[in-house]
Amino acid sequence: MPEISSQLSNPSLDTYVKLWKIEEAADFFQKFPASWVMPSINVAHKSLESLAARYCLWELMKSLDLSTLVLHQDDRKRPYLNHFLWHVSISHSYPFAVACISKKPFTGIDLEKKDRNVQKIAPRFLNPMELELWKDDALKLTLAWSAKESIYKAWKQPGLSFQKEIELQINADKLRAQVNQEDSFNVAYEIFDEFVITLVNH
After folding, report:
1. Do 123 and 84 fall into the same domain?
2. Which pLDDT belongs to residue 77?
């Protein structure tokens, strides 16, 4: 079974991550409850990604005896559980999918393929200082894009500006973030051969 081991899971912090490489057909992943809301997706592989991410979340929930909870979707199509303690986030980029469940109220996870030409969009999501530092480093650009995506998911603040309101520092093996020039926190991440994952758990 193509589950990929992730170091981002941290049970001592009530945070659990499941990562999957998709090699199965859609039927394999359609094991979560029929009551779970699925977004309407017309592209076959995008639908498969979404199924796999929900499968990962369902497997995590079963392992935590949370299978009675129901996954909903808000008006901006973000998944959430009908429980005030547990927070979820999912991400996917074919052929990979990931899910996270945590008791931390600011929880967001993102997965990005390394082959994406992120240089083209960098001026839209980086501030001038970040762009100057990382414009020639494809890995750091991908990490920065993924980190800001994770933060955006975690903050659940419509219109939060990647460029103006989320600031990053990438130093050696540490990724630090600040939102709205207020709270500063670490963003956990892993780098694989084909993709990167970032996790906000704050």
Report:
1. no
2. 83
